[in-house]
Specification:
There is one protein chain. The protein is mainly alpha-helical and about 100 residues long. The protein contains five helices and two strands, in the order H-H-H-H-H-E-E. It has a two-stranded antiparallel ribbon. Strand 1 and strand 2 (about 95-100) form a beta hairpin.
Length: about 100
């Protein structure tokens, strides 16, 4: 796309109705904006694909607690290092013996 900024062909200039820009600083400024936009979009795309953006936003999001009982119990048991009790006999309600080793 550099050729569209510096020296577009005549038939492209007539089809797209482009004006010839004689100021070289302005041409480089346009190319600089295009390059900056490309690099910014590329970095943003890489951040989204790698999950980096999700990790940056996650601390600011409110954590939702699960409404399902088994998930709440699983989370509670994960944090409790004394469960299951080892080398102890646990009696079930129906009278069956449960033993963990």
């Amino acid at each position: 796309m550099v050729f569209l900024t510096f020296s577009p062909l005549q038939f492209i200039r007539t089809i797209l109705q482009l004006m010839h820009i004689t100021d070289l600083k302005f041409q480089f400024l346009l190319l600089g904006f295009a390059a900056l936009h490309f690099v910014t979009a590329l970095l943003f795309e890489i951040a989204i694909d790698s999950g980096l953006l999700n990790q940056c936003v996650r601390p600011f999001c409110k954590k939702k607690h699960s409404k399902k009982l088994f998930k709440r119990l699983e989370k509670e048991l994960c944090c409790n290092f004394t469960w299951p009790p080892l080398n102890e006999v646990i009696y079930a309600e129906s009278g069956r013996v449960v033993h963990f080793e």
